[in-house]
């Protein structure tokens, strides 16, 4: 009991120091999430050994759930019906083709053993990880954030579905049935507000939102945990359950949605999400990385090539160069899904330990480096070229508004 509290205290200390260090570091360009991961490495088994990941595992998993709950909360169905989302889908399919070719070649020479987990890892995007960085810099509602959102959503949802089908359970038909069942449940819950709009229960929940009962927040957390449990029971990745919970919550939440979002941000970013990112840093095995140091830069470059380059080229007719470069680096950033994929590969014995460590290390480095490059390239006012809009308007070559407006 005391050992668990000591580990939690050290983790929370890192979480509390991160925003202070981020504010005092010259230049102020290091995101808090980067400092949380570095702090986790420092206090974890590969560092000074001040905390044990196993003692905060439950809280870290809830933090992972909050990461994807808030990411799903940001996604509106209309975003996925725009031309930008159509291009994002083509970019992800292109990433899958590149991953199949490249990982197939690496498997042929014995560089990798776990073909499917490694291939899927290279097609992922950390929507829930990059959004807080963009939000911290005020870029989530600028052109970069608007174009990144559909790419991040597709780069997170489709790999999750692929994980559920190919790696989640032994029988793929059972996986499809499980996906259909939990999807139908999410769809049904999304229409619950219409049924309860004039009911007494809905009025009670809405009325207690800002009292000591905090009804909307408590029911939101219940929804999150419920989807996490359901996803686990169906043999699916819990990330899928958390993202579905966030997407349902935007339609389900009674009362003031903005006020609920503020509360979820407070609970998530105030405690659970920092615990997850510190825990992710604690899980980095530096010994395995130093034993095969060449693997880490290889995977880091492959993330950019496989996931970032298709986005860079496919938006060449609608987005100016600087914004495409920013979008490329943001889309190539990944972390939570790679952690899940490496755990699956190690669990079933198909992934080499050095590749698991290198993939995780590359994912951590992608969070440390790629968003920082994207943010550093941002010009005042959100334009990718001084004095010109970041997105080409119909008068200079066509294009469409990432929010779905012509």
CATH C-level: Mainly Alpha
Number of structural domains: 1
Binned, the helix content reads over 70%
Count of individual helical segments: 18
Major sheet attributes: none
In terms of structural class, how would the helical and strand content be classed?
mainly alpha
> Alpha-carbon distance between the termini?
58 Å
Using the coordinates shown, work out and report the CATH topology: Na+/H+ antiporter like fold
How many runs of DSSP E, i.e. beta strands? 0
What's the architecture in CATH terms?
Answer: Up-down Bundle
Structural description of this entry:
With 406 residues, this protein is mainly α. It contains 18 helices and no strands. Helix 4 (83-108) packs antiparallel against helix 15 and helix 8 (172-190) runs parallel beside helix 12 (238-252). The chain has helices at residues 2-24, 32-43, 57-74, 83-108, 115-121, 127-136, 143-168, 172-190, 192-196, 200-207, 215-233, 238-252, 257-282, 286-291, 295-314, 321-331, 336-347, 353-376. Mean pLDDT is 80; it is low at 382-406. The termini are far apart. It has one domain (2-396): Up-down Bundle (Na+/H+ antiporter like fold). The radius of gyration is 21 Å and the shape is globular.
How are the secondary structure elements laid out?
Blueprint: H1 2-24, H2 32-43, H3 57-74, H4 83-108, H5 115-121, H6 127-136, H7 143-168, H8 172-190, H9 192-196, H10 200-207, H11 215-233, H12 238-252, H13 257-282, H14 286-291, H15 295-314, H16 321-331, H17 336-347, H18 353-376
Helix pairs in contact: 1-2, 1-13, 2-13, 3-6, 3-12, 3-13, 4-5, 4-7, 4-15, 5-7, 5-17, 6-7, 7-8, 7-16, 8-12, 11-12, 15-16, 15-18, 16-18, 17-18
């Amino acid at each position: 009991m005391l050992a668990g509290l000591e580990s939690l205290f050290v983790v929370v200390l890192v979480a509390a120091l991160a925003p202070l260090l981020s504010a005092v570091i010259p230049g102020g360009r290091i995101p808090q999430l980067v400092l949380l991961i570095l702090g986790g490495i420092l206090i974890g088994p590969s560092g000074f050994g001040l905390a044990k990941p196993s003692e905060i595992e439950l809280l870290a998993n809830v933090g992972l759930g909050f990461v994807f709950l808030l990411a799903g909360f940001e996604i509106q169905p209309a975003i996925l019906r725009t031309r930008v989302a159509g291009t994002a889908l083509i970019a992800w399919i292109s990433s899958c083709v590149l991953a199949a070719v490249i990982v197939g070649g690496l498997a042929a020479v014995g560089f990798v053993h776990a073909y499917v987990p490694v291939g899927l890892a290279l097609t992922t995007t950390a929507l829930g990880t990059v959004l807080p960085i963009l939000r911290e810099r005020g870029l989530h509602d600028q052109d970069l954030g608007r174009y990144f959102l559909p790419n991040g959503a597709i780069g997170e949802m489709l790999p999750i579905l692929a994980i559920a089908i190919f790696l989640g359970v032994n029988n793929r038909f059972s996986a499809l049935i499980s996906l259909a069942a939990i999807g139908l449940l999410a769809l049904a819950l999304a229409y619950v507000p219409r049924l309860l709009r004039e009911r007494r229960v809905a009025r009670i929940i809405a009325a207690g939102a800002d009292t000591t009962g905090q009804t909307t927040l408590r029911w939101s957390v219940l929804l999150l945990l419920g989807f996490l449990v359901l996803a686990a029971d169906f043999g699916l990745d819990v990330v899928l359950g958390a993202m579905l919970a966030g997407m349902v919550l935007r339609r389900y939440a009674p009362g003031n949605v903005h006020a609920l979002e503020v509360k979820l941000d407070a609970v998530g970013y105030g405690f659970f999400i920092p615990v997850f990112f510190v825990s992710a840093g604690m899980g980095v095995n530096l010994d395995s990385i130093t034993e095969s140091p060449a693997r880490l830069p290889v995977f880091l470059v492959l993330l950019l090539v496989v996931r970032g380059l298709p986005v860079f080229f496919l938006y060449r007719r609608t987005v100016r160069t600087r914004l495409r470069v920013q979008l490329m680096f943001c889309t190539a950033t990944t972390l939570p899904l790679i952690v899940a994929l490496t755990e699956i590969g190690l669990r079933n014995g198909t992934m080499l330990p050095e590749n698991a460590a290198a993939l995780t290390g590359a994912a951590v480095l992608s969070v440390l480096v790629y968003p920082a490059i994207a943010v550093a390239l941002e010009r005042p006012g959100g334009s990718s070229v001084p004095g010109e809009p970041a997105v080409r308007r119909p008068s200079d070559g066509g294009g469409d508004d990432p929010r779905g407006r012509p």
